[in-house]
UniProtKB/TrEMBL annotation:
Organism name: Candidatus Paenalcaligenes intestinipullorum
Higher taxonomy: Bacteria, Pseudomonadati, Pseudomonadota, Betaproteobacteria, Burkholderiales
Positions of the DRBM domain: 152-222
Gene3D superfamilies per the UniProt record, alphabetical: 3.30.160.20, Ribonuclease III domain
Primary role: Digests double-stranded RNA. Involved in the processing of primary rRNA transcript to yield the immediate precursors to the large and small rRNAs (23S and 16S). Processes some mRNAs, and tRNAs when they are encoded in the rRNA operon. Processes pre-crRNA and tracrRNA of type II CRISPR loci if present in the organism.
InterPro entries for the chain: dsRBD_dom, RNase_III, RNase_III_dom, RNase_III_sf
Classification via PANTHER family: RIBONUCLEASE 3 (PTHR11207:SF0), RIBONUCLEASE III (PTHR11207)
UniProt-listed NCBIfam families: RNaseIII
Top EC class, one word: hydrolase
GO biological process assignments: mRNA processing; regulation of gene expression; rRNA processing; tRNA processing
Identification of the protein by name: Ribonuclease 3
Binding site for Mg(2+): E38, D111, E114
Cofactor(s) required for function per UniProt: Mg(2+)
Length: 250
């Protein structure tokens, strides 16, 4: 397997390529799998992200920093990053996992990404691992609204509407495009009470829904500019999405 393309994407060249090969090997493929590397990478990732948050938000307390970190290193976020890197193209899976679509399963993608971080740490040391992780997370950290305390756009939209005693938004998949390992999902988010409908696209249904919710927050704020209690600022923290929005006429 040629892994030089993956090295280019993470901007790190391995001295010991076998470590990267092990990092993308699922336990269904062979006994030399990535679970120990994933354990190591998880620890390195948590430390590096904690350091990024500590530096970026000097006024935030320990509890809120922990919540922000948890949101950044959770499985869904890691799987999204893995998809953006095209990590599924390099996974080594057993026959059963291949047939069941394991290359797009969030848990497998997230674990493999952490294993890659662990492999970089073993190959090049902490500084190298920190650089690779920073590359993927610095932009996400920079886009965080500390007032939201790590809440994702769907949660923020739900709280915003509940605060105004409005019905919750409805999400539906409009279409999917592309090959099975590289699909694009088109999703609509509708808020009937405000005659709002937005559309967004992403490499997973979750990413598309989060991007749609982000657009909806802005439109809700525009329609209710004087109801300051529920107003939320727009946050561009959903990376790798194509976003468009429409508003129905009142």
């Amino acid at each position: 397997m040629r892994l030089d393309r993956l090295e280019q994407r993470i901007q790190y060249q391995f001295v010991q390529p076998a470590l990267l090969e092990q990092a993308v090997t699922h336990r269904s493929h062979s006994a030399q799998h990535n679970e120990r590397l994933e354990f190591l990478g998880d620890s390195v990732l948590n430390f590096v992200v904690a350091a990024l948050l500590f530096s970026r938000f000097p006024q935030i307390n320990e509890g809120d920093l922990s919540r922000l970190r948890a949101n950044l290193v959770k499985q869904a976020t890691l799987a999204d990053i893995a998809q953006q890197l095209g990590l599924s193209d390099f996974l080594r899976l057993g026959e059963g996992e291949l047939k069941s679509g394991g290359f797009r399963r969030p848990s497998i993608l997230a674990d493999a990404l952490e294993a890659v971080f662990g492999a970089v740490y073993l190959d090049g040391g902490f500084t190298a691992a920190q650089a690779v992780i920073d590359q993927q997370f610095t932009a996400l950290v920079a886009q965080i609204d500390p007032k939201a305390l790590g809440k994702d756009p769907k949660t923020l939209l739900q709280e915003l509407l509940q605060g105004q005693r409005l019905s919750l938004p409805v999400y539906r998949v409009l279409a999917t495009h592309g090959a099975a390992h590289d699909q694009i999902f088109d999703v609509a988010c509708t808020i009937e009470a405000l005659s709002i409908q937005v559309q967004a696209s992403g490499h997973s249904r979750r990413v598309a829904e989060q991007a749609a919710a982000l657009q909806a927050i802005e439109l809700v704020n525009q329609k209710m500019p004087l109801r300051g209690k529920g107003r939320m600022s727009r946050r561009r923290e959903v990376a790798g999405t194509v976003i468009s929005s429409t508003v129905s006429k009142d």
